[in-house]
Amino acid sequence: MTATVNPTRTTTSTVGALIRTGVIAAVVASTATMAVAAAGDLAGVSLDLSGTPIPVSGFGVLTAVFSLIGVAIAALLARFARRPRHTFVRTTVALTVLSLVPDVVADAGAATKALLMLTHLVAAAIVIPAIARRLAA
């Protein structure tokens, strides 16, 4: 009697679990970036960009939008990449670094620029590991 082995690529989660984790991470990251922005505002850091104030809720909304884009990237990589986790982490770290460029060149004070960059890094520190854990290595 012979046994047939069917090699299959195993993943650490389903797409549904990946999406649930990503949505939860997006909510947590949005809350965290709003808290960072509010703390900065309370500490006297201007939230004005080119003379226009950024509402604290704006930090949360943009964090949620871009976090959900990250979830979509992860879902695509889970389906098509040979090493989804590795590819996701490399891609999102690069995108996080690129997201800092507009902050560096923004028409704002140094403290405002630093606060903006901090919010990007806080969001990335929450979302990237949460989603990466759900992807196959």
TrEMBL record:
InterPro entries: DUF6069. Keywords: Membrane, Transmembrane, Transmembrane helix. The chain crosses the membrane at residues 17-39, 59-81, 88-108, 114-132. This is DUF6069 family protein.
